Amino acid sequence: MFLTKLSLTNFRSYQHLETEIPSGILLLSGGNAQGKTTILEALFYCATFSSLLAENDRQLIRFESMKEPIAVARIVAQFQKSETDHKLEIRIIQETNSLNKHVRKEILLDNVKTSAQKTVGFFPAVLLIPQMTAILEGSPHERRRYLNITLSQSIPGYAQALTEYNQIISQRNALLKLLGERKADPQQLDYWDEIMSKRASFIIYHRIHALHTLEKLAQEAHRKLTANVENLFLNYQPSYDPAYDSVKRDSIAYSWSDRQDRLINKPDEIQTGFRMRLNSIRNQEIERGISTIGPHRDDFRIIGNDIDIGTYGSRGQIRTALISLKLAEINWMKDKLG
Fold this sequence. Notes:
By secondary structure, this protein is an alpha+beta fold. Helices cover 45% and strands 20% of the residues. Helix 5 (158-182) crosses helix 6 and helix 6 (189-225) packs across helix 11 (315-337).
């Protein structure tokens, strides 16, 4: 895939930018606050439809244009893929009335309206910026977000399953809280537990296999970068672990020997075990009013020579591990998407 043209309108600091993109390596040079990173952010937004640098889409709209009743930030990327020309257009629209401001997003692929879930991965991209050290040393949310973005681009159906799962969690948590307050029939959870288990098993299965492959690719890159001094491991820490008898466990005690055990579980087996686990902790979840297991509570840690790099690594180790992970991501996506 080759990007051939980029157009930005009212995006961040750009009132308007339209430029041809030359083939080969492109170097952007300029002073601070001139919009170099903004161009990278716009391109990555075309791949993932979310920003790693903004808290919400409203922040992507050029500040001066937000005085209008309708403010629109626009990204248009033209690119060649499999010798076919494509055009991806994204509009971030803020509508202001007397009561509030509402922001929505429109996506057009080859001039046809589509959704983010259907289009993510069509314009694949890997981004490396200094702020991404948060993947190693930040909260579990940062690592889940990284994993979800990577898999959404490369695994068909992952983005849709993740969206549906998050919607289910919201509905299920509301029901758990209601059951706790009113002491209602807990069997009302049966429906939500069943569909939650189906979506969760799909996500967990692909996370297991993705981290297994990314680890191999990252190890190869990391050995080259460290002259064979360090070995790198990706330690997946699922809140529901199919490698354990999760019905009997209330906490995770990770063992390196169980890494291979997870790979033998099929999605339907994970679904059955997850459903049993939900049933066993139903009373505790009703009491707490929240879903306590599932992909929304997963984590993974990056280990170098048996040391958690995010917690104990030096700045140099953290940056080197991040580069290794990003090189692995490139090879992973190239293998998946061509």
